[in-house]
Amino acid sequence: MAAPLSTSRGLQEEKLVSSFDPSSLIITALVSPEQNSTAEALAVEADSRMPGHGEEGARGIPEKGPEPGGVGKEEANEGRASSPRGVLEIPSLSSDSDHSGCGCSSSSATAEKPTAAQRLHWWSVVDALKRRSARKLLPTPSPGIARADEDAARGRGWKTTTAATTKKKKKLLRIHSAEDGMDRGALNLPAWKPTWRSFDLAELVAATDNFCPENLIGKGGHAEVYKGRLPDGQLVAVKRLMKKDKEEEIRTADFLSELGIIAHIDHPNAARLLGYGVDGGLHLVLRFSPHGSLASVLHGSTESLEWKVRFKVAVGVAEGLKYLHYSCQRRIIHRDIKASNILLTEDYEPQISDFGLAKWLPEKWAQHVVFPIEGTFGYLAPEYFMHGIVDEKIDVFAFGVLLLELITGRHAVDSTRQSLVMWAKPLLDVNNIRELADPRLKDTYDIDEMQRATLTASMCVHWMSTMRPDMKKVVQMLQGEDGSQEWKQKSVSGRALLLDACDLEDYSCTTYLEDLNRHMQLLLE
Ligand SMILES: Nc1ncnc2c1ncn2[C@@H]1O[C@H](COP(=O)(O)OP(=O)(O)OP(=O)(O)O)[C@@H](O)[C@H]1O
User: Which of 86, 252, 440, 470 is the most exposed place for a label (fewest CB within 10 A)?
Assistant: First the structure.
């Protein structure tokens, strides 16, 4: 496994990035074969770029899933494709429940399949992308194409179908024929109105004052985010995917992936999608969070964030993660929980955002192995960065780090490149709350809440994933609802417990810290 590259995003956030993202396969399920569009050629290209990727895997759905309780393997040379990210599965017409759409429930725990109307809505997204692709294929730019689109098309070597890809294309045609054979017009649509819509470029330009630099409110590894105002006065955040080093098709795949997941999320502690735009770039339109990210409020201000708010944020993020892990038809693993991906509403209600790396896993897969490993250093669970293992527990680990940030006011990785987990571990082991608590808080925190938070954090950042609580338990622990007494007792004998756990496994506490260190050195070299 090649060592992942690191971007230069400062010491606080070393983000792992990939040279190739298997999620690009998502496109293969979204383009229609009936048009010889760029999008289709793109699909074939994306497919063919997977080394050893079998034709059967062209839809990104494994031919044969792992046995119940087994591990889903994403590595291409295993002959299986990735657990598809995002949209790929949403409009699926397959009868196999495991390959059906995400259909996350609306604030309820009941999973629902997508309706015909929902599928139709998705088709409109696909059509918009196809139109965009088709425009770019035109040998001479049409006078009707917006200038921004011309810029985007300039110099880009979109490949049309080649002899080498013809065979795969034929296969794709067959794969898609079943879906495309469905008469969209003949669908008897139930009354379903999506809460999000398509925005054209003119609307986005007007809202953001032509993406004026003054409206730039955030810049991540993949996107620029602009503040905007819609004609009805509503404030929005327009997330524009950056061109950077990624190929167009990979960017499109990332975009569809994020859109596919976020469009189905409906929870007060998760970012709310208002729409998307595919003209002049790829855009997500999101509800604006007035306080920006937790990272900026916690670390970017001289004023100390009061404990009451910190605890509210902790509980809210835990609720949001619980929803993602348990209230969707398929479990959504966020994979990039960190302070800069937690946005704060007017009244400091936290919202989990940036679903660019999120994955959903079939119910019967206990876990999944991915390559390349993506995420942000300081928040990566050991089993993930060492072996690429993905399940809910990697989010639990990252949540533990976030909790430590809230408790201590420290960064996940400090200016001396020390990981917060490494710094906090000895203090957590002896339950030294005085040393752990952010000195800026002085004595203003609720001692019970602080006790519960530190204990929960110590369990969440356990190096053995099986020793970490799930997010249902985390919520209960934070709220002191279930087993708080039991946890209190554990906190008293916390050190003994943790040492016991160390003894149980060869993979000891020391090994874990050494691995973390080694991994960090690798990244920062
Ligand atoms: N809805 C929003 N309201 C206010 N600010 C936002 C909103 N969405 C994003 N931002 C700001 O923009 C920043 C970058 O957004 P985001 O994390 O989605 O971009 P990204 O490129 O995907 O990031 P990453 O590097 O984590 O992949 C956030 O940290 C936040 O400060």
Answer: 440
Nearest to residue 490, comparing CAs of 523, 448, 449, 458?
458
Q: Six-digit token pair at 414?
A: 């400090």
Q: pLDDT digit string (tens) for 189-207?
A: 445 567 788 999 999 999 9
Rounded CA-CA distance 394/330 in Å is 16
Nearest atom (ligand 1) to Cα of 338: 26
73 is in an annotated binding site: no
For 449-508, how does the pLDDT look when each residue is reduced to its tens digit (9 = 90+)?
999 999 999 999 998 999 999 999 999 999 998 665 565 555 445 444 444 444 444 445
Write out the E strands in 282-385: 283-287, 331-333, 342-344, 350-352, 359-361, 365-369, 375-376
pLDDT of residue 426: 94
Q: Among 217, 234, 284, 287, which is best to mutate for testing ligand 1, by the most ligand atoms less than 8 A from CB?
A: 217
The whole-angstrom separation of Cα 284 and Cα 304 is: 32
Which residue in 374, 268, 375, 250 sits closest to 312, CA to CA? 268
What is the three-class DSSP state of 405?
A: helix
Nearest to 179 by CA among 99, 57, 91, 112: 91
Contact 380, 461 (CB under 8 A): no
